[in-house]
Amino acid sequence: MRLNQYISSSGFCSRRQAERLITAEKVLVNGEIAPHVYFVEENDLVEVEGHRIKHASQKVYMILNKPSGIICTASPAVANNIIDYVSCPERIFPVGRLDKETEGLILLTNDGSVVNELMKEENHQEKEYIVTVDKKITEPFIDDLSNGVTIYNPRKKSYTTTNACPVIQLDEYTFRITLSQGLNRQIRRMCRHFQYTVTHLKRVRIRHIQLGSLEIGQWRHLTEEEIAGLNRQQ
């Protein structure tokens, strides 16, 4: 977090006032005059005019309707990373990932316990997607998808049969699918097995959290009810 944000979020003063104090060299970081631009690390000691600043980090839970082209990584070295895109003053990280070209709901938080729970494959957390393919959908295609598909798993370097899952056709080229697995590019690989190519993929739900009417590229904090639902199901 930037130093001026760190000071203001502690309640000591406004961000603008913090900026003035930094410029006036009245802010020390680890006993030395702070540079004008500084990002506070976890173990830094920050003092303003002799007062030690204590930043009480709050737990943050948000969802983003991720646009295509944004990469689900917290690494600042990666262009178009999701953390820079959201630009949250707290240190947060994405829960899992969506492929660069995939749109839709992704959670971001600084609560490690939620991340661990949602990422455990054995917990079978439901994730729902809307999928558009390049040619007309047939009834056998829908049936085959729902019954499980044998696809290559690059992480295990072996073939895996996907779990049976609900699949509902929405129109000639679009269907809704609910997965309880998180295999690499799973939906795209499942469709490719039957000579279909995914042209648009959007996640609309993770467990009890719905994307709803959130516009693409927009984010919001979770409601108290949504957070309570996460905690209840841990």
Please give a handful of descriptors for the protein shown.
234 residues, alpha+beta, Structural Genomics Hypothetical 15.5 Kd Protein In mrcA-pckA Intergenic Region, Chain A, Alpha-Beta Plaits, 3 domains, 9-stranded mixed sheet, 4-stranded antiparallel sheet, 15 strands, 24% helix, 27% strand
Averaged pLDDT: 89
What is the tally of beta strands? 15
CATH class of the largest domain: Alpha Beta
CATH architectural type of the largest domain: 2-Layer Sandwich
Q: Number of DSSP helices? A: 7
Report the sheet with the most strands, covering strand number, pairing sense and barrel closure: 9 strands, mixed
Number of domains: 3
What share of the residues lie within helices?
A: 10-25%
Q: Which residue ranges are poorly predicted, with pLDDT under 50 across at least 5 consecutive positions?
A: none
CATH homologous superfamily of the largest domain?
Answer: Alpha-L RNA-binding motif
Q: Decide which structural class fits the backbone.
A: alpha+beta
Shape by Cα distribution: elongated
CATH topology of the largest domain: Alpha-Beta Plaits
- How much of the sequence lies in strands comes to 25-35%
Radius of gyration: 22 Å
Structure in words:
This protein is of the alpha+beta class and 234 residues long. The protein has 3 domains: 3-52, Structural Genomics Hypothetical 15.5 Kd Protein In mrcA-pckA Intergenic Region, Chain A (Roll), CATH 3.10.290.10; 61-120 and 213-232, Pseudouridine synthase I, catalytic domain, N-terminal subdomain (Alpha-Beta Plaits, 2-Layer Sandwich); 126-206, Alpha-Beta Plaits. 24% of the residues lie in helices and 27% in strands. It is built from 7 helices and 15 strands. It has helices at 3-9, 15-23, 82-86, 112-119, 139-147, 186-193, 224-232, and strands at 27-29, 32-33, 46-48, 51-52, 61-66, 93-94, 103-109, 127-133, 150-153, 158-161, 167-169, 174-179, 198-206, 209-210, 219-221. The strands form 3 sheets. Strands 5, 6, 7, 8, 11, 12, 13, 14 and 15 form a 9-stranded mixed sheet that branches. A 4-stranded antiparallel sheet has the order 2-1-3-4, with no helix packed on it. Helix 1 (3-9) crosses helix 2 (15-23). It is elongated and about 70 Å long. The chain starts with a helix and ends with a helix. The model has no long low-confidence stretch (mean pLDDT 89).
